[in-house]
Write a structure and sequence with these properties.
Structural class: alpha/beta
Number of strands: 14
Largest sheet: 6 strands, mixed
Shape: elongated
Length: 685
């Protein structure tokens, strides 16, 4: 740029950075770890830290390009962003377009609507903010979001927007880039460490709590370019120390040993991170320091160390590093669509086929799209064309969202996609106002004029409403439910997430209000309690968090039953249907979609382990209260059904669908069965 300042005479000329194949090898390790985590999370629990490796590499390479351009007075914003567009847009456009096309043919209206939103966010590099807004992981499962992985690309692009301008301003005003980088990195790291315990979701997706990782690479770029002599001095002094400590070693040999040590320590830290870190801990937080420091050490060690030269510069790893960006983009949508189509239960063979397909598509993308776009004869007009195409794809995504996923699309069986979305809609019982009805005054949460039955619990109580309504012998009842709040007084399960304390507070208060309402409304004769009870989670009781367990929860359940009996009511506990481990509602819908037999039935003995945990818990509950097992209605001769009268019995992995609940009530006269069971038990006590 013509108005760039002359180089500060106190700053040495930078050392030109040549291509380093070991960095491509490091890219390969990063992308392979992410792919392995996504495909086999139980085997590669810490693989997601590959994203943090990418962040450091990106910060290092981008800052190197900017520093060298500023030094040579050749830096141009237009050239910088044109190169970024040609690097990122071609593969991203291909993946976004493919997702839009596959989604049209395979996704239900609600799924396609969400995909449209994510395509718009991906095209505008704001995926991290969109996913942040959806957060909690009580929304749709992560596996059902084909573009979930674009959150990291959003953070990188946001960094690319602000970072060149900041460095250019610092250079123009002759501020110390190292000081600016260090200051911003420390602030970002502080926000990360402070925020992860308060709002883990925000800390994960927020750029200001992630920029320190890219800035670590930027600081390394500065040090490599301008402080090479300082590094060499340290190596020489270390070599002399090694000469004294180890007889026969030469100074130059000592320098090499130090570089090899840095590389070995870095690789060891990565291996430790892959093994030790998992998604259940507070991440990024302090744990993100491990992959960031490891990457810095490996790059700092240089390309001539044994590990960098023989391992990371291996031709296979270098080749994978060259296709790492398209591989990162392709692998997750393909895995996600497989997960969606197979209702969360893909076979290992299918997973392996998808991974091979991901590598093949990545290579083809690199050879037939990326390289021609970057090196072709029409390079001058490429950036503007790519920007226009990205605007078009983003607009199509936005239109898909606005049109509610084009629900009027017709499947192969002649049914509209929107009808499947309606069948699998969230079941809130009598309405969304009853999800947390804290004043108990609205008539929307009662069925009939003078309720004598109370339905109390969480979402596994809500899903019983249609069954109670549709039974032949209908009792007037009232719904008092709250999401994630089990119907046990003075305790609740504890979510270690950012909103865990509020959840406990709200649930304890909710249950107090339910009990108070019962004590003031003595016309209630029966109370139906329903919940999955989350037996493996931590619980909050007596002012502290303790490990969950059958005995503690059963004790408080018994105290709750005793208090209800003291009010003169007859409680009955409803145990949920068995869990299959996969999305039973989507499974039914997918098979119906292609005219296959709409059955995803499973053997009870193959149920998810949660089913057997509940069974053990209910055995304890049966010593002091009547228990009704829904599996007695849905499982026959050891086979558990996932459909009823032509409708899906479930809407997901465990909740009854609205139609399934209604059909269950009609078929078995469920309300009468519950009341009769309660009367029989308590009248004989």
């Amino acid at each position: 740029m013509s108005d760039s300042p002359q180089i500060n005479s106190q700053i040495p000329q930078p050392r030109h950075q040549r291509y380093r194949p070991d960095i491509d090898g490091l890219r390969a390790i990063a992308v392979l770890s992410v792919v392995a985590f996504h495909a086999f999370p139980d085997w590669m629990k810490g693989g997601f830290i590959g994203v943090d490796i990418f962040f450091v590499i990106s910060g290092f390479l981008i800052s190197t390009i900017i520093f060298e351009g500023l030094d040579k007075e050749t830096f141009s914003f237009s050239d910088f962003y044109a190169r970024r567009i040609k690097r990122i847009f071609p593969a991203l456009l291909l993946v976004l377009s493919a997702c839009l096309a596959i989604g049209w043919a395979a996704l239900f209206a609600d799924e396609y609507k969400q995909l449209g939103k994510h395509i718009f966010s991906g095209a505008s590099f704001a995926s991290n903010f969109t996913l942040w807004g959806e957060a909690g992981y009580f929304d749709n499962s992560a596996e059902s979001k084909p573009l979930l992985h674009l959150w990291s690309l959003g953070i990188e692009e946001q960094f690319y927007i602000v970072w060149p301008l900041l460095l250019w301003l610092a250079w123009k005003r002759k501020f110390s880039p190292a000081l600016i980088i260090s200051t911003l990195a420390v602030i970002s790291l502080y926000l990360n460490l402070r925020g992860v315990s308060k709002d883990a979701v925000a800390t994960f997706y927020s750029p200001q709590t992630r920029f320190w990782e890219l800035l670590s690479g930027s600081l390394l770029a500065w040090a490599t370019l301008y402080k090479g002599d300082f590094f060499n001095t340290i190596k020489v002094k270390t070599g002399r120390i090694l000469e004294v400590a180890i007889p026969g070693i030469q100074v130059n040999s000592g320098e090499r040993q130090l570089s090899n040590l840095l590389s070995l320590v870095g690789l060891s830290l990565l291996v430790y991170g892959f093994w030790r870190i998992d998604s259940g801990i507070g991440f990024p937080g302090k744990w993100a320091i491990i992959p960031v420091l490891a990457t810095v050490l490996i790059i700092c060690a240089g390309p001539q160390t044994i590990i960098n030269r023989l391992v990371l510069s291996n031709p296979v790893l270098v080749w994978l590093g060259l296709i790492s960006f398209p591989l990162y983009l392709w692998h997750w949508p393909l895995l996600s669509f497989l997960w969606i189509i197979e209702a969360g239960n893909p076979s290992y063979k299918a997973l392996l086929i998808v991974l091979v397909l991901s590598v093949l598509l990545s290579w083809l993308t690199y050879r037939l799209v990326e390289r021609p776009v970057r090196l072709g004869r029409w390079r001058k007009h490429v950036p503007s064309t790519l920007v226009f195409l990205m605007l078009v794809v983003g607009a199509l995504g936005g239109l898909t969202y606005k049109k509610d996923g084009f629900g009027d699309r017709v499947a192969a069986n002649g049914v509209k996609f929107s009808e499947y979305s309606d069948l699998l809609a969230i079941n809130l019982g009598l309405g969304d106002s009853c999800v947390y009805d804290k004043d108990f005054k609205t008539d929307k949460c009662k069925f009939g004029d003078s309720p004598t039955v109370l339905l109390w619990g969480d979402s596994y109580a809500m899903h019983l409403v249609q069954a109670l309504e549709s039974s032949k012998d209908v009792y007037s009842f009232r719904q008092h439910t709250a999401s994630s709040c089990r119907p046990i007084l003075d305790m609740n399960y504890y979510d270690n997430g950012p909103d865990g304390d509020n959840l406990v507070k709200n649930c304890l208060r909710q249950n107090e209000l339910v009990y108070k309402w019962l004590s003031e409304n003595r016309q209630i004769t029966h109370v139906i309690l329903s919940s999955p009870y989350n037996l493996k989670s931590d619980i909050f009781v007596e002012g502290k968090v303790v490990k969950g367990g059958y005995d503690t929860q059963a004790r408080y359940m018994e105290l709750t039953i005793d208090k209800l009996r003291a009010l003169g009511v007859k409680p009955i506990v409803v145990a949920p249907t068995p869990w299959s481990g996969y999305d039973m509602g989507r499974c039914w819908a997918r098979r119906s979609l292609v005219r296959a037999e709409a059955s995803c039935d499973f053997l009870y003995k193959n149920s998810n382990e949660m089913t057997f945990d509940i069974s053990q818990f209910m055995q304890k509950v049966e010593t002091f209260a009547p228990v009704f097992h829904l599996q007695d209605l849905t499982c026959v001769d050891g086979v558990c059904s996932t459909h009823i009268n032509g409708f899906p019995l479930h809407r997901d992995k465990g909740h009854l669908s609205m139609s399934g609940s209604a059909e269950l009530g009609k078929k078995f006269n469920l309300t009468k069965m519950l009341i009769d069971r309660a009367d029989s038990y308590w009248d004989n006590q």
